[in-house]
């Protein structure tokens, strides 16, 4: 994903084998778990090439094939950290913020052109994937996602939903994502303090770091061993969240709330008349 020519070639191979591309999902990333001043410039550049420019290159490859047909959907897999930065993940947070701004800009252009190519973004919570076993880490203890943690199947279902209903600007997945983004939206333009000690502690387990842990920053970590879709936290990861259903059916909930309000007003009026 860090090489546009390879991305474009992959798109051509896919299209030749299966026909026109209808849906393109950008999801690839790598990162470094470390304080900012312990990440080398070369590592920062590589993270940005994969985790931000990979989305740019993927989007360009998809648009080059979708715009001539005036049809297609691009889904950007984002994160609650596209709006909120946390300690020890400056490279990742920077990439997700960049993807958010890039996607907003492109979406405006597509709307201006009345294009039938759609782009949407899915903001994910902490997900139990193998990333915490292969992302380059300089932390003294083994890294972990900040709880609550969700299984990757929940994220996958949300991405499929977004691909089927791409007219929405973005989807929020998980109660923790909503809890992060609503205060950020309400307090835009003002600083939101993050207590550094708990945030840093919650990014690590009590287990010491594994000195032999593979890293996928410069090359794939699963070229020999297939790590599967799940990480080390299945025992505490959630398979479902009521917020996901609510996010996907907010129109129905709004109508139900309106109906409830109308019924309450009518009941109050009847009581007043009596």
Number of helices: 9
Shape descriptor reads globular
- On the 0 to 100 scale, the average pLDDT is 89
Which residue ranges are poorly predicted, with pLDDT under 50 across at least 5 consecutive positions? none
Rounded radius of gyration (Å):
21 Å
Strand order of the largest sheet: 1-3-4-9
The overall strand count is 10
Distance between the termini: 70 Å
Series of secondary-structure elements, N-terminal to C-terminal: HEEHEHEEHEEEHEHHEHH
State the major sheet. 4 strands, parallel
Tell me the strand percentage band: 5-15%
Helix-strand makeup class: alpha/beta
Care to describe what's here?
With 274 residues, this protein is α/β, with parallel strands linked by helices. 48% of the residues lie in helices and 14% in strands. It has nine helices and ten strands. The strands form four sheets. A four-stranded parallel β-sheet has the order 1-3-4-9, sandwiched between helices. It has a two-stranded parallel sheet with strand order 2-6. Strand 3, helix 3 and strand 4 form a beta-alpha-beta unit. Helix 1 packs parallel to helix 2. The longest helix has 26 residues. The protein is globular and about 75 Å long.
